[in-house]
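A common beginner's mistake is to predict each chain separately and then try to dock the pieces by hand. The better habit, illustrated here, is to supply every component at once so that their relative placement is modeled jointly.
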Amino acid sequence: MAQKFVYFFGDGKSEGGAEMKNLLGGKGANLGEMARLGLPVPAGFTITTEVCTYYYQHGRKLPPGLDKEIRSHMARVEKVMGAKFGDPKNPLLVSVRSGARASMPGMMETVLNLGLNEQTLQGIIAKTKNERFAWDLYRRFVHMFSKVVMEIEDELFGRRLDELKKEVGVKLDTELNAEQLKQLTADYMKIYKDHVGSAFPSDPWKQLELAIGAVFQSWNKKKAVDYRKINNIPEWWGTAVNVCSMVYGNMGDDCATGVAFTRDPATGEKRFFGEWLKNAQGEDVVAGIRTPQPINEESRSHGDDGSLPTLEKEMPKCYKELVRIYTLLERHYKDMQDIEFTIQNGKLWMLQTRNGKRTATAAVRIAVDLVKEKLITPSTAVKRVDPDQLDQLLHPMFDPKAKKNRIAKGINASPGAAVGKVVFTADHAVEMKAKGEKVILVRLETSPEDVAGMHAAQGILTARGGKTSHAAVVARGMGKCCVCGAGEIHIDDKNACFTVGDIVVKEYDYISLDGSKGEVYLGQVPVIDSEIVQVLRGQMKPKDSAIFGYYETFMKWVDAERVLKVRTNADTPEDSRMAVLFGAEGIGLCRTEHMFFDTQRILHVRRMILSDTVAQRREALGKIIGYQRDDFYGIFKEMGGRPVTIRLLDPPLHEFLPHEGDREKIAEVAKELGVSPDVVAKKIVSLHEFNPMLGHRGCRLGIVYPEITEMQARAIFEAAAKIKKEGGKVQPEVMVPLTGTVEEMRNQKAIIVETAQKVMAEQKVKFPYLVGTMIEVPRAALVANEIAAEAEFFSFGTNDLTQMTFGFSRDDAGKFLPFYVENKILPGDPFQSLDTAGVGLLMSMAVKSGRDARPDLKCGICGEHGGDPASVKFCHSVGLDYVSCSPYRVPIARLAAAQAAVEEREAAAKGKAVTTAGSAKKSARRPTVPVAKKATAKKAAPKKAAAAKAAPKKAAAKKPAAKKAAPKKAAAKK
Amino acid sequence: MAQKFVYFFGDGKSEGGAEMKNLLGGKGANLGEMARLGLPVPAGFTITTEVCTYYYQHGRKLPPGLDKEIRSHMARVEKVMGAKFGDPKNPLLVSVRSGARASMPGMMETVLNLGLNEQTLQGIIAKTKNERFAWDLYRRFVHMFSKVVMEIEDELFGRRLDELKKEVGVKLDTELNAEQLKQLTADYMKIYKDHVGSAFPSDPWKQLELAIGAVFQSWNKKKAVDYRKINNIPEWWGTAVNVCSMVYGNMGDDCATGVAFTRDPATGEKRFFGEWLKNAQGEDVVAGIRTPQPINEESRSHGDDGSLPTLEKEMPKCYKELVRIYTLLERHYKDMQDIEFTIQNGKLWMLQTRNGKRTATAAVRIAVDLVKEKLITPSTAVKRVDPDQLDQLLHPMFDPKAKKNRIAKGINASPGAAVGKVVFTADHAVEMKAKGEKVILVRLETSPEDVAGMHAAQGILTARGGKTSHAAVVARGMGKCCVCGAGEIHIDDKNACFTVGDIVVKEYDYISLDGSKGEVYLGQVPVIDSEIVQVLRGQMKPKDSAIFGYYETFMKWVDAERVLKVRTNADTPEDSRMAVLFGAEGIGLCRTEHMFFDTQRILHVRRMILSDTVAQRREALGKIIGYQRDDFYGIFKEMGGRPVTIRLLDPPLHEFLPHEGDREKIAEVAKELGVSPDVVAKKIVSLHEFNPMLGHRGCRLGIVYPEITEMQARAIFEAAAKIKKEGGKVQPEVMVPLTGTVEEMRNQKAIIVETAQKVMAEQKVKFPYLVGTMIEVPRAALVANEIAAEAEFFSFGTNDLTQMTFGFSRDDAGKFLPFYVENKILPGDPFQSLDTAGVGLLMSMAVKSGRDARPDLKCGICGEHGGDPASVKFCHSVGLDYVSCSPYRVPIARLAAAQAAVEEREAAAKGKAVTTAGSAKKSARRPTVPVAKKATAKKAAPKKAAAAKAAPKKAAAKKPAAKKAAPKKAAAKK
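With all components supplied together, the output reads:
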């Protein structure tokens, strides 16, 4: 067993460094790096993350040999620090902290002052000549150890402390004297014994062993698991343990402790920014017991009257040293740093440095500034902003200054901020909108019938359903704010109100929704467009915005890097306009069914559905075509010659009729249509489907009722002709949904092409157009070469493709999907981030075989994954031409696409190929740790995801090859 | 254009022959072959099927150059026959007939006597010296030409003939004299002119051109299209046209005509068997106007009193010649022949020979006899019986002699014959069964709730639903007779009866169902087991059966050829027993949910579903385990050590509860469970799914409720332990349903393995077992290598795999699937015969990548395709280890598997690989005909099915390679 488990740092030397983050965790790697840079770091050592992995793979046992290695490293620390662990005369005390690859704040609280016992305490007293200080350390240590290592309830200790203070008649901890602290320590030890069943361990080595075990155990505690889940950190990463010599900021007035950011983490401004406290230990700064002081004038907060003394003024030498160090660290790491320091008897010690967390605004500004400062290149800057974070900069938001009365919390289904009057039906929403009212549509859950109402509403609130519910999906598609699954609200249809506990919210009462937080507020919270949107809309001058200039520069770099085009999913001229402002280069998915739900039109749609003959159907369709043509004309106009992909009618026809049991609505519809309710009811029954997802929809409608396809094609082409006649440009791309066989494609294409030719002849004008298909049925991907013989483009409908590839109904998966994610059956929700191994393999197969048949085949994605950064990166890797997403996600997709291109280029430069699967997303697969002796069941599982192996031979997975095969421009017909 | 369109035959010479069937059609090829053999064939020529294809690809135009070729071939015919087409003195008359690759009886009626007009008629009169005969030919020609070529209503001619007979006061056509026939001819010509608008064409060449065009057009007439659809004949095959010199059996008493089979087509007995008529034309024999006479004593039918004169006696020389020829033909073709002959003035002419159609009994017997006669080898014999036809020999049948009163016709969903009392609910069926009554369950449609009732019933009749409806699928799975979609019946629940027109059938009235014909009879039609089943069951001695010995010999050869194993889908000991008699080598799918529906158990199942806690659920499951263990024990016992694959619970839980709206049933269930109806209703609502097919079912149940998996595994292993303790053999294979990710498999396998170990320890006995999975979700096939790391076997659930790969819900596809098949969007119903290009590609990928990860991975199929011959052949080609099908289809699958092996071996010997896709099924793809000048849109489509190309590199598709990689025996645990 030649493996090394422990890495030393200190005294200007280090066995590890920043490049070893995976092995040593972020904290350990950076401590090593700082030591290497010659910075004053208290000596210590790091136990690797591999030990953590071993620990979990071997029934929570530490590997043999670890103990020996720890002892030899401790000896080295002792030598550097001039003290000895457990020595009664000259004791070395240490801190024990976890440190994972990624920062996981608060995952495990640190154990400080480890190594104290009755004997070493005496050494401390002798060294510091401060009995009170020593007993204070000791009681703190017993408390922390009990709480963190033994998980004894914190409150027990707090209560004892309060009792003691009452007994002795003091208010503050600091007022307790040495004797009293000694008593407190004894009391704490009793609490320990009562709970653990044995005495508090006095052997420092035993203390250390228990603390290390506790750090590893903390990795699987609920709060750590939850944090990992939210932040997509795989369980198998594990945590490292850092054992570090203690230094003290609380040994007197020449001592201090503080934290600082090298730039402002909220705005990104270049100013050194931090807080400190004299004569204090680290946690005092953040705990809020004492008001922390600004380290310099620039760090004063608004409420600060200027009286709080700064470090700069109080300890100018140390401050100067700190400035030297932070400047060096920022130059070294080429990024804004979040640092922790302690001053012990006038000597500055660096306890930590890491890349600082920041807001989206700060991220963009810092990235741009660092380029200007020539610390990084624009390519690196592009990688410095998390695409998902960009969202914050774009969506409308509640005025941060406003007061809010939160009444319920649901799921943050679709971001944004919405304010409006409560209505309970879609029709009502439409009606109110027509009157110029802003409404929030509140429903138990939504169905396709509600789409017009959703469109009319400012936001949607549902009591049921998760992030993949109908409400959530449609709202995101519309870029509309939505809070769903707010289980606390009870809708009372009879009394036209909903209740949350005692609160009754009536129809027409105002509420506000925060779609990013999933919160519901009573009343009208003031909403503002984000600055960037205000500037884009021309409602604010660029120079009046602190961030717009940075955003613009940054996005310019983004666009320079990216290869993938970014389109938008938009069904209306308004959405199209917004998307263009956000940089959309076309429409990747224009759904026509939403247009069908409009109140003026649905009557004709229903008449069409109830038709018995082709002639009747044609007559009804004849009433709709004018509306559709106007829709398309408006969208073409907004898109100004950019390509517009229009999907033909997709949903099953029963979605346009009332529900089977809804007698009232059936009667109403029957009356409108002038038929008996029985006729409507019978039609509803005849259209009933057991599995509508797999039913009579998509091109199956257009094949059985070719006149629907013909009407839609005609509307599209007449609108195109009108644009051309007006001297405009237009590029319609007609998309056949749900194709599974080439014969379907052939059938629908024939109708579309014939209609195009007719319209061109009638209107005496030519326009370019393409005919292609969604690839959303697994079979389509499997026979892509056949289909590509007819289809001029593919657009992966990854929502349905994911449903069918997994056999998951998005509407029903709520019954098991959360359980699956929680229990690691799935690494994440495949409807949110593309399943690269399964669905992705189908995509790469289809791209490859489709381009075998038609080298200039245009390939895109229009499922919701088109706006998910990890999925966008995958799309880049399989050689798609574009991704398409909702308007507000366009900048996010642009950024993700740019990052994919940069990462690919960098990997190529390193001689490593970016693998198709798994590269975009942190892999859920736990690698086998070499130290494991027994092969576990997992070992038998092949390492590489299926995609990498089974994927069509070489080319498809790799961007450059696929690109070469597909000259982009050739596809468009002239 | 060097292509040859026309092929000559006659005078012992021929340009074509039997090997050119695809080009010349069956009739033309065989006429050529007979000519080559030196048999007396009237000279003629064949216009190829390629001309037909050209005709349809070029807007119904004949290729240039054809006319010239026809004329030069006609000249050769004229020379041989010593007469000239259109010559007034010595005219040659011809027949024009269609002739496709496969015999398509009645597709187009022949045009005889073509070449007649006022002038050539005189030549006939002069040659035959028989004016009446000549006019009779002429009027027949005008009639046939009008009817066949111009599609003038037959009745018009019949009516005119009747009128004329009345006018002249005769009863028979033969009583009309020459003058009257002349008048009739003139009248016919008037009818022609009235309908066509121009005079009857007198130019023989014009007649010929029109007749040839008509033959080609007949290829796409409804009756031809229908016939093709039923018999799976692709449209692009086209038909040939045979132009043949006329010979006459009606020129006097030394003339005759007849048809014969070289062996008995009903029984297969080796006896020359035929009918003839003196002085008659061919159609007289079949038209039934004159009673045909036996050609020999052996051909006399039962009703024949021996007075009808035989050809053998009347024309012994010709008969002897005929015997010589038929013997020669049978030896030459090595198969039973169906021949047509005409004797003109004492000279025998052979008009046709072809392999004769025969019953299943005859097919088996003839195949076996031909081997005994050393004409063919057993391998060839195996290919001689259509697997589907074998069905006839196995299913119970109505006594053919019984009288029947048919009251309705539905869809022949599941073959068999059933008689019983009508009941209208599943519960009622179960109740009656318990009383020993035989019942027919009559339902509007069935749902999973009805399964217990279906099992209890003799047969199922539904008013709604097609071949893929729930009733049909489940009934076929059970091997139970089912007629579904009998739209004429109206179920009147209130009055407990159903009506068909005026007929009222009450509860408890007897009806009989013929599942093979889809017919419903009033009363009890006597049912008998097929002879083979009677013998297999030991109810008849083998020697008392005319066919059993042949069947046994034949199936021995079948088993000697086949490589694929054949298992059965069986859920009960009875089904298992029957399947073993039919040769099943194991159970490939034992569904456990049917066991759950049993009345005694469903209460506990419902209690389990309503449980709120794991403890409650365990308690309810504890009530079920005993039943399940007994079920498995019974099945293991019957299977005597053969492998038994048991699928864990698959359907969504709501299937075990009443329907949402069924208040009555909900109240009943609530009462049984001792809870309020509201509790049951709420649970039903909470379990509701929009797309149950893609919902919370399969292993998703076992993962969320691991105690269900544990209970089922325990029941299986306890039953296995019991068998072992009794000294028996057992091989359980536990199958996880609906797996989509390896984590699911790992999760379920862990529970199963742990349970197995516990049971072995408790019972102190070891038994072998495997744990594997269904591959029925597309993703499972895509990540098969990952899953195979855990799964020890794969069983392709091609029902669900087809649903998800196509995105077709089997329950809903009735809305468009028939339209798709009718309109050639799909070549056939993919639920009946496997879609090799799409679903098949997933299968071949999965087999390959699964065996990459686990070389001894056992692969089988348990979808309904396992009993479809074409699909079985595909399964052979991708290297599966076994197919599994319902008991009655086991012999069919055995035969199909044997044929696949023979075909593969023969193809290999010829140096041709059997391609993976499309080989099993006639391809639906129309090849481009080389004579086509313009490339059609279809040309762009790549020729080979996707499977062949995209399929994992080499091995998977080819049996031998895959086999080598998978040593069979290794898989079983010891």
